[in-house]
Each structure stands twice: as structure tokens, then as C-alpha cells.
């Protein structure tokens, strides 16, 4: 059964409108006269649950967009899927508290989610992500994988098979592909294609993603709407890419966050 007023619930794998890094976000559409109190209740439950999980240092953010609201909370990179469930629980508890209904107590919920954290914990993945952030190495979070570096120096691992940071030659991954990010209302794809032609004339092998396709040099990797993180990952991970032009639509930013730092 769906939660009242819930429109969407998802992971954020990069910086977004609300958070500086990974986390979870829900979009809700509560009645106008109830919205402020429901959001305040959600913030209370989210703070309390994060305290029980040891996630106190992670940011919490809300934003009203017309009649809708976006409620987001940062989370450890190996806990993003679980964080979406936690976000939904906090919203459910907020509604129950507002309506005066019974709901799972904070101690009970804390114990249950701590058990789930123990089952999902992936410390090697978390350590690799944190090490890359400290070293300011570009990384890409995918669906079940992570990569370091860009272009010819990019390397990708499954999240369950990542190496220890001490095993890596970090100098290899300190390689950024010159990147342009194109966003806006109209003309994004036209601008993207124009920049690609300029880069080709300058001797680059440009990779680009757009609402039409994703392409590296003369090679078309796929034809579809690739104006989100998936297209950006495909471009930045390709070994032939020497410069990147990423069409970045509003929907992709809101749904998953920005793919590059």
C-alpha cells in the first residue's frame, strides 16, 4: 500500500539541489494546511533515527516547490537504498503522529534499522569512496558499481569487489577529462552538438550525451534519452574520451543529482 501524499522516492548518487553528496530523497504533495507540520514531524523523526544509526553528521534538507515538497537526507554511500526506506518510514511516522494514529516506536524502529544496516554494511566500498573524496579523485557511482578516474585512466569495479585503498596507485586516477555541462530550458542539444564540433576541430575525441544519444567520436553507444547520470557515466568512463560535453536535463538533476563534482 502506498504512503499518503508520496509522489516519488529515490537515491541521490551525486550533488543535487538539496544535498552536497549522496543520499535519499522523497517528493510529497501534502495538503497545504498540513504541509508545514508534516515536514517538521518528518525532520524530527529523521534526526532521531539518524542518531540511533550513528549518521548524525549527514545533512538533512527540505525544499517547497509549489504545492509539493522535497525531503532529503544524506547517507553513507553503501546505505543509499536503505536510506530510501528510512526516508519513507519517517514520512509515514510523521503522518501517523499528525493524525494521532499509532506507529512503530523510535526504539523499535531504531533496532530494526540497525539490524538492516548490519546486513547491508559494505565497509570496503565505503572506504574506497571516502579515500577518493579525500584525495579529490573523480569518481562515478553507478547502479552496482563504482569507477575512479576518467577517460583512458578510468577503472570500474562492482560494489562487492572493490580493492582496498592501499592497493591502488592513486596517481593513475588523478586524471580529469575537460568537461562542459550544458543545462537550461531550450537549446541544450544544439549547444552540445556545437561544442562537440569545436572540440573535434581542436583535435579532441569528444564524448557527449544528449536527449538523442550518447556518442564517443564517431561511435554511437546508444540512441535514447541520455541526458541524465547514465549518459554522463558512459561518456566519462569511455577510454577514448579526451573531452566531454554532458547535456544535463533538470529531471536528471532532480532524480539522481549531478554526476560530476
Q: Could you describe the 3D structure shown?
A:
This protein has helices at 32-53, 80-99, 106-120, 123-134, 170-173, 188-201, 229-237, 250-256, and strands at residues 6-12, 23-28, 60-65, 68-74, 139-141, 145-148, 155-158, 179-182, 206-209, 213-216, 219-223, 243-247. The chain is α+β, with helices and mostly antiparallel strands and 261 residues long. Strand 9 (206-209) and strand 10 form a beta hairpin. Helix 1 (32-53) packs across helix 2 and helix 1 crosses helix 3 (106-120). It is flat and about 65 Å long.
In order across it, which strands form the biggest sheet?
A: 8-12-9-10-11
Mean pLDDT: 94
Q: What is the C-alpha radius of gyration, as a whole number of Å?
A: 20 Å
Uncertain runs: none
Secondary-structure content class: alpha+beta
What fraction of the residues are assigned to beta strands by DSSP?
15-25%
What's the domain count? 3
CATH fold description of the largest domain: Gyrase A, domain 2
Report how far apart the termini are: 37 Å
Secondary-structure element string: EEHEEHHHEEEHEHEEEHEH
The helix content is 25-40%
The beta-strand count equals: 12
Short description:
With about 260 residues, this protein is an alpha+beta fold. It is built from eight helices and twelve strands.
Looking at this protein, list some descriptive labels:
8 helices; about 40% helix; alpha+beta; about 260 residues; 5-stranded mixed sheet; single chain; Gyrase A, domain 2; 4-stranded antiparallel sheet; flat
